[in-house]
Input
Amino acid sequence: MRALLRWPRQRDDAHQEGRATVARTSRLSGLRSLAPAERRAAVAAELGIAPDDLGAFLDGGIDLTHADRMVEHAIGTIGIPVGVATNLIVDGREVLVPMATEEPSVIAAASNVARMARPLGGFTTTTTGPLMQAQVQLLDVADVHAARARILERETEVLELANAQDPRLVEHGGGARRVDVRIIHGRHATHLVVHLVVDVRDAMGANAVNTMAEATAPLLASIAEGRHLLRILTNKADLRLARARVRIRPDDIGGPEVVANMLEAGALAHDDPYRAATHNKGIMNGVTAVVLATGNDTRAVEAGAHAHAARDGQYRSLSTWERDADGNLAATLELPMPVGLVGGATRSHPAAQAAVRMLEVTTADELARIVVSVGLAQNIGAVRALSAEGIQRGHMGLHARNVAVSAGATADEVDALAARIVAAGAVRADVAERELAELRAGR
Ligand code: NAD
Output
């Protein structure tokens, strides 16, 4: 395991702050053949931290007391596997990515595509900065256009009142930046909606902007000479975008014919909402797994992604597929990425903290860049499989183990039974039960 590429800026910062150093390489080949404890040790060794620093993954990270503090009427917790996606390079930095998912093949596919992307440098990202928006709905306004003008005249006063709600955010360089006023001509009414545009720095930002919306709503209503109703963020976080692009040589992904098929698949996902929904689900397999592992709000990210997919009025694929001038597959992905490192469960959940440690990110912006890169890797993995051998071959091998467990196989029998039902060409419960009986009978 040798150093390949690094992210020198962060490595220097990490040294100065005495934190763990940046992973030397994410190319941890052979992880598959290790036991889970050995994998944790290998990842920790690569990161230069103690295996215990990843210990929160051992038992899910929280007990019932903790759960009881997090949600109402708690009765327990549910375990979700966490795996490590390997091989990823994001903006020149080697990253080992914790992914929380119950679905087989997802982590393998992301790792596989990340490996294919390495020869041309991996993933390159940009972000727009962490701007979230709160909406204040104003009703019973006689003169919506004049009200809009009056609100904009007093923008400074509104922003000051908003910022007075969150001195800590302002201390960290964030705060309310701008007021937008929208007039929406609907079927039954004309709506007046004020947006507070807030730089939320390293927070996901929902609570932060909701508090500002509630505090400023009475002032906005009085300026508009109406009344306020809804005061909450919009999950269409289209001022907080993260983008990734990647190039893969045809021979690294199965050949020119596979690339040609992938372009056909990408074109259908752009034009057909039925295909786009599945295409985007593949993206979210990667996105949601990292968002969940880091204790972030999966629903907020998913709502934002699907709203973005429908931004021109038709639901479309979130990614684009092309051939570059050299014939390589050139893929891009853009989506809203409202994730944070403070607030919510990100700070309070020990497993989320271990995940952040593994990622070696210090800002929400860095986390967003990794999440969107994993989403793009996942997307390419799914479409590549569909464009080549079909999705079931890779999927079924792993799915077979779940079917084997459901059929009653013990830990000692799972692998043997899974192999038998794959060999039988039918990964089904009835076949698993039959094969288990035969296995036990020594046949
Ligand atoms: P939060 O209020 O717990 O934390 C954010 C606060 O942390 C900031 O307001 C600031 O005061 C402080 N802070 C300290 N250091 C900071 C830094 N470096 N950068 C930024 N802020 C810093 O959480 P939040 O992020 O405002 O809200 C997230 C939570 O809100 C999640 O649990 C989410 O599920 C929930 N939520 C979501 C929705 C929705 O998406 N529709 C609605 C309501 C609540």
Q: What stands out?
A: Residues 1-21 have pLDDT under 50 and may be disordered.
